[in-house]
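Reviewers of the previous submission asked for a worked example of the structure-prediction workflow described in the proposal, so we include one complete record here. The input consisted solely of the amino acid sequence. No template or homolog information was supplied to the procedure at any stage.
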Amino acid sequence: MKPAISPPASADPGTDAGLVTPTVRDLFLGFLGLGFTSFGGALPLARRTIVDQRRWLTASEFTDLLGLCQFLPGGNVINLSVALGMRFQGWRGALAGILGLIAGPSLVVIGLGVIYERTQSDPHIRHLFVGLAAAAAGLLISMALKIVLPLRREPPAAVVAALGFLAIAVLRTPLLPTMLVLTPIGIALAARAVRNQGDSR
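From that input alone, the workflow returned the following structure tokens.
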């Protein structure tokens, strides 16, 4: 397993300097470690692993790929493992990514399920799960901030993100209608931004 490559202290996480192309083995071991260490939600640790530690993607590339994975049916991290593996190593990479992600946790969940069935009435176990839920919420908030902060340099994308948050978190609009409305808006704003950049050169 290749050691994690850290970017230089002055490197911008949004650039592609120092990116590493993972092998099939790297993808399997990377997602295997992610599956074993992510509790209550793998997205925060997935970003840290893929962007900060292993340098497979830039921060902006991760955000774009995550947006695609959220639009597709199924779990976001599972979609991410397949999409990332397919991007770098084709179907072998996709298979390695998803197998690495689900192999370890599947065995752990089966074992914990047997234990929980026998101890679920214990108040200490209930307190344990409350603490895990709080930690998972903190990780999700941390990841959300890391994804939102780069958008400050892209006002149109920030507006679309704000509209999505308002629709889903405040107005309780279902995800599919929200995506069907906001996706064309986001594509149009991105195309306009690209045209404006081309005209300014």
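The chain has seven helices and no strands. We consider this example representative of the routine output the project will generate in years two and three.
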